[in-house]
Write a structure and sequence with these properties.
Elements (H helix, E strand, L loop, with lengths): L1 H22 L3 H17 L6 H4 L16 H6 L5 E10 L6 E9 L2 E6 L2 E7 L5 E5 L5 E5 L10 E4 L3 H12 L5 E4 L2 E7 L2 E7 L7 E3 L5 E3 L1
Parallel strand pairs: 5-8, 10-12
Antiparallel strand pairs: 1-2, 1-7, 2-3, 3-4, 5-6, 6-7, 9-10, 11-12
Helix pairs in contact: 2-5
């Protein structure tokens, strides 16, 4: 009987402590925890660097709205900008690296070059999000095969866990995130596909190998 009473009191005490903690959370802290729960569901035990990312709080955005070119703001007017971060975009043909911005609004993802929108992906059409199990910052945004899209988007992000989490939450497509091993296929356009290979080496690099594949070390 004493043991049962002790267990009941322990459970009551724990519930009160949890309730007190939850009530004391600020709105910002609550959002952080909600995002980290999604990050855990997507990456825990799957991608290198996840454990190290746990102690790093996500920022609301890496660049502010007024850091964007006024022409870009005019083109996406009416959409609520949620997150902006610098990225490296790799061409689907030739894999040349180009500095770009990834702009996430309430309804779409935009790849932006200075004053130009290079590609728009509406979340409703997004087919998938892929990243590797290694510590690289590569993410591939898979788009449908239609005339409005040039092909899948290959990006390198400095804050990969933060960026992918923001994207899949805004798109409400957490289940479409895949963490792959070895290689992945991406759509180049016009019904063609390319291959990206992930490997381990002494220093990080991204290059086109002799077979024409994009190799991420």
């Amino acid at each position: 009987f004493l043991m049962q009473t002790s267990e009941m009191l322990r459970n009551i005490c724990m519930r009160n402590l949890v309730r007190k903690y939850c009530r004391g959370l600020t709105a910002e802290r609550k959002v952080q925890l909600q995002q980290k729960v999604v990050t855990s569901a997507v990456f825990s035990g799957k991608k290198e660097g996840y454990l190290e990312s746990l102690s790093q709080p996500f920022l609301d955005t890496r660049l502010k709205e007024n850091d964007l070119n006024p022409k870009v703001l005019q083109l996406i007017r009416g959409e609520n900008i949620k997150y902006v971060t610098p990225v490296i975009k790799y061409d689907r043909n030739g894999f040349k690296a180009r500095e770009r911005l990834l702009v996430l609004t309430q309804s779409s993802a935009y790849v932006v070059e200075m004053a130009k929108i290079k590609q728009k992906i509406e979340y409703s059409t997004l087919k998938g999000i892929s990243t590797s199990n290694l510590s690289d910052g590569i993410v591939v945004i898979h788009v449908p095969e239609d005339k409005q899209q040039k092909g899948d988007v290959i990006l390198q992000c400095e804050h990969i866990f933060e960026t992918v989490t923001k994207l899949c939450i805004l798109a409400n497509k957490q289940s479409l995130v895949k963490v792959v091993k070895g290689s992945l296929r991406f759509r180049v356009g016009s019904g063609k596909e390319g291959t990206m290979v992930f490997t381990v080496g002494p220093e990080p690099q991204v290059f086109k190998d002799k077979t024409g594949q994009l190799t991420v070390v």
